[in-house]
Structures are given as C-alpha cells and as structure tokens.
Amino acid sequence: MTTYKCYRDAERCDVKANGIPLDVRYHIVEPVNGFEWGNDGAGAEALAFTILCHHGDRDMAEIIYHHFVSEILSKLTIDTWHISDTEIQGFIEYVGRRECQELPSKKPVPTITFSVKPKFLDDVNRYFAPRVGVEEYI
Question: Which one in 44, 72, 96, 108 has a CA-CA gap of 20 to 30 Å to 10?
Fold first, then answer.
C-alpha cells in the first residue's frame, strides 16, 4: 500500500510516496513553484496529475485529474495531509460511477485521512452523502 504524505511550509511543498519524494509530472502547464493545494491553479493540477500518474497511469490521470483538483486539492486549507492509494482508487471509482450515472444507493465512498479535520469537510459531506447514500464522505 502506498501512502502519499504532503507537507508545505513558507518555502516549499513536499510530496512523498512511502517516504520517497515525487518529481513533478507536467500536464497542461508547468507550475512556477512546484506543487500546491488549497486552490485550483497550476501547482494543484501538477500535484493531482503526479499523484494519479504514480497511482495508475498517464491516461487515467489525464481523464480524472481535474476532478481530484476541484473536489479534493482545491478545498484543502491545511499544510500537512496524507492519502492512501486505496482512498485514491475509491475516489477514482466513485467519480467513474458518478460520471456514468450509475451510482448505487448504498455503496460506500472512500475516506481521506487528514492530520487535522479541514473546515471544508462539512460542505463535502453535504454534497456527497445524499448522492451515494452514506452518512459521511470523509
């Protein structure tokens, strides 16, 4: 199992997969300062694309990275967080079902573990829970 740990301070953002730093994989635009989250800019796109390429493959990453940015990375307001490959795969499958309009009524959706509970989780839960029939998304 792979765990992606993300940390940022005033100078940089570090992203590691099982303790090994990930190199930025560029997709549409090259981020000026590398990885970022908490917005939907080039740094967040690069982070989503890099994690998804590492998790799966480039073709899958090209299809789903914008969902990962808009539904996960853009909402993160904390400096340290982590996500497992199991959680990523669950998110990919969830988005696939949603995009195909084949949402089962009681299929659980993945959880994402944060070091500190971000403020956006209440909004995420209000958005996802009614759609998939679970009490909480995260």
Answer: 72
Say which residue the tokens 């792979």 belong to: 2
User: Which residue shows structure tokens 């301070």?
Assistant: 9
Q: Is the pLDDT of residue 108 over 60?
A: no
E-strand ranges in 1-138 read: 3-8, 13-17, 20-21, 80-84
The Cα–Cα gap between 21 and 43 comes to 16
Cα distance between residue 100 and residue 39, in whole Å: 27
Query: What separation in angstroms does the CA of 98 have from each of 53, 84, 102, 128?
Result: 21, 21, 6, 10
Q: What does the angle CA 48 – CA 75 – CA 127 come to, to the nearest 5 degrees?
A: 105
Sign of CA dihedral 113, 63, 17, 45: negative
pLDDT of 28-43, one tens digit each?
666 567 889 999 998 8
Q: Which residue has the tokens 């940089």?
A: 12
